[in-house]
Write a structure and sequence with these properties.
This protein is of the alpha/beta class. It has six helices and ten strands; from the N terminus they run βββαββαβαααβαβββ.
């Protein structure tokens, strides 16, 4: 499903170069639930953004669904990402002036899915948010916002969901709900790669990949 070959990503800062990823090679098989573990600054977010076709590596090759995603044009990458990849951010990133339904169907734009409120409402019902469809993000709790973000990630029926610390801003009860929804996607045949520096997600994982200073220290 995902193959990274000797991937590095270097940032230029005022203090010099920072290597966020350092020669990372890893495979994620179709239908796996992989948890990326490591402290803040270990490279988890950079790895996810690279797999999501959002951040070109400085060196190395990234293949998703057997496609070299950085050999594509910017437009081709956007279409490929919308059709194949759902992304869940720690900070939700919902559009504040759109209601829940509008935030979800917004994900269909690059894939050409258009507005499909019936599908979005069905998805919200499954996530326990049926009565929140017309609410705006400011009217939702943190747990509800993250469930909307998951619905947005699932809207185009992606093959893979990438989740960057999706429980980082949630209390334990809401964190469990979010992880269970991601696990349900996984049980339905979807692939999940989730970054976390806490232990909550480990019980859902098929495999845990440990990152330290931009390099893989253990993958088993």
């Amino acid at each position: 499903m995902v193959v990274l070959e000797e991937v590095s990503r270097t940032y230029q800062t005022k203090r010099g170069q920072v290597r966020a990823l350092d020669g990372v090679s890893v495979r994620v098989e179709r239908g796996e639930f992989v948890v990326l573990c490591g402290p803040s600054g270990s490279g988890k977010t950079t790895l996810l953004m690279t797999v999501a076709a959002m951040l070109r590596p400085s060196r190395g090759r990234v293949r998703v669904e057997e496609r070299d995603i950085y050999a594509m044009s910017i437009r081709q990458r956007a279409i490929f990402r919308a059709r194949n990849i759902g992304f869940v951010f720690q900070m939700f990133y919902l559009v504040p002036y759109l209601n829940v339904i509008e935030n979800i169907v917004l994900a269909g734009g690059a894939a050409g899915a258009g507005a499909a409120p019936a599908e979005a409402r069905e998805l919200l019902g499954r996530l326990g948010l049926g009565e929140r469809a017309l609410h705006r993000p400011a009217e939702l709790s943190a747990g509800e916002k993250q469930r909307v973000a998951i619905a947005r990630a699932m809207f185009n029926r992606p093959k893979i969901i990438l989740a960057d610390e999706p429980t980082g801003n949630l209390d334990p009860d809401n964190a469990s709900v979010v992880l269970e929804h991601l696990s349900e996607f996984h049980r339905g045949g979807g692939t999940v790669v989730l970054a976390s520096h806490g232990p909550e997600a480990l019980e859902f994982a098929d495999r845990v990949v440990h990152l330290e200073r931009g390099a893989i220290r253990d993958s088993g």
